[in-house]
What we know:
The chain is an all-alpha fold.
Amino acid sequence: LISLGAVFITLTAVSLILRIWVRTKIVACWGKDDWAMLVTQACYVITCGLLFKWAAIETALTPQKGLKPYVKVSKSEPSITMPTLTNRQSYDLLVISTATYLVTNLLLKLSLALFFLRFVIDRWARRSIWGITIFLLFWTSGVFLFSLFFCGLPDDILKKTMKGGKCISPRTTLILGVTWGVSNVLTDWFFALIPVMILLRSRLPRATKISAVAVMAIAVVGSCTAIPRVASYTRLDKATSYWIGTTNFLIWSIIEPGVGILAANIATLRPLLDKTMQ
Length: 278
């Protein structure tokens, strides 16, 4: 998990530097989408850092001392009925990293929306993109609050989970998580579909159309990695081990926004490629 995160931080940072170079030196067209991507990268690095810390703590724990969320502790296991300080730190990192992951994805969607608005002139199309962006803002904000307070105050989450306290049912949590993941994928392709429809109806040369459509497709290719993440989320309760299930889910939580950031940055590098070819 740590190695994977380090690789994606490096790749996204390099692609962002190239994006900054293209937008400031080659085309001299720095925009709001670039500012949004800068903040997205910062949030992504923070998310990976939190997961690195979680991995370090979990590696140091033995199976007897590790967290056992989603499982009610029986009377025959009194040694783990109360969370230790290390348990609490580990679980807090999961909760906080989930929140920063949601913020990272929301900022990435905002950057993509602003990127596509550069190509869209039609009023109906611009309103559609802004409408879906505002909807996603409120929807993600709701999921953000849910991830923090689904078991009451964040400080009580671990204790209630380990002692079988009253929280929102796992089924409701699963439905909400899957619904948000699917809407995340559909939003990306909705953003790309509108400008593609406009381009195909335009009188631009065929080669230009193909090139532009390719750029749009590259920009949203990161959404494809959201599908395995949703699948891994649905298998959390069925995992044979807490560590295996959680780690697989967190790996995709690193890959999904990482690929999204990388793809969105690569989509802006065509001027650099043209200059290199010349």
